[in-house]
Design brief:
By secondary structure, the chain is an alpha/beta fold. The chain is built from nine helices and eight strands. The model has no long low-confidence stretch (mean pLDDT about 95).
């Protein structure tokens, strides 16, 4: 199947799972060429997710003629925060106040519109994964929401890989409940960034507003040698 056909299949599945709801599809394009991203854009895709700053900036230069929205979805190294703050529209993986402060300083200093950010939550407690623990997310949210240059939009998670549909839904439901709890505390958050190629149906069923889809759109990654 072509990229256009894959995109249409994902869109149709999301529409069936979330009738009447808006669920944004971020095409995870890390490891994909600018040419394949352009093909996705020609099929109506505007939102793209990247995890490696230098790779993303090369693609941004190659695709600067297109009105794309760039989402940073990978671990954010401290020496890359300025580049990310100045070259992306969204950051999905903020998990500590120091990272948020660096993003805030760079974005505010450039006089740009606020950078949309999500807090990454480590729901499974895996030591190998980034993310703030659920019991600490409220404190971090209260700190980040006041930072100039940032707009705290919601929460993101990257749960453990499993084909157990009930376990998938359990994790995604937990993130939704965390968001609801934060909003009861006075925050106005509207974003749940959860769900990838292997589990996005469960995420959408549990209220996801952004899914991050790579393989189901592009197939396996094609890295340049």
């Amino acid at each position: 199947m072509t990229i256009a056909q894959n995109l249409e299949a994902v869109r149709e599945q999301v529409a069936v799972l979330a009738p009447g709801r808006q669920v944004a599809i971020v095409a995870v394009s890390k490891g994909q060429s600018a040419e394949r991203m352009r093909e996705a854009w020609q099929a109506g895709q505007v939102l793209f997710g990247e995890s490696y700053v230098q790779e993303a900036m090369a693609k941004q230069e190659a695709l600067r003629d297109l009105p794309l929205e760039w989402h940073f979805i990978g671990p954010l190294q401290s020496n890359k925060t300025t580049l990310v703050a100045l070259n992306f529209h969204w950051v999905h993986g903020v998990d500590r106040i120091k990272t948020a402060e660096r993003l805030s300083s760079a974005r505010r200093g450039a006089g740009r519109e606020p950078l949309n950010v999500c807090l990454q939550v480590n729901l499974s407690g895996e030591s190998s994964k980034s993310g703030v623990l659920p019991e600490d997310v409220a404190l971090l949210a209260r700190q980040v929401v006041h930072l100039p240059g940032l707009c705290l939009r919601g929460l993101m998670t990257l749960p453990e890989l499993t084909t157990d549909l009930e376990q998938q839904k359990f994790r995604f439901r937990a993130l939704r409940q965390l968001l609801e709890a934060l909003n009861r505390q006075g925050l106005a958050l509207d974003t749940l960034s959860m769900g990838m190629s292997g589990d996005f149906p469960s995420a959408v069923a549990e209220g996801s507003t952004i899914v991050r889809i790579g393989t189901a759109i592009f197939g396996e990654r094609h890295r340049k040698s």
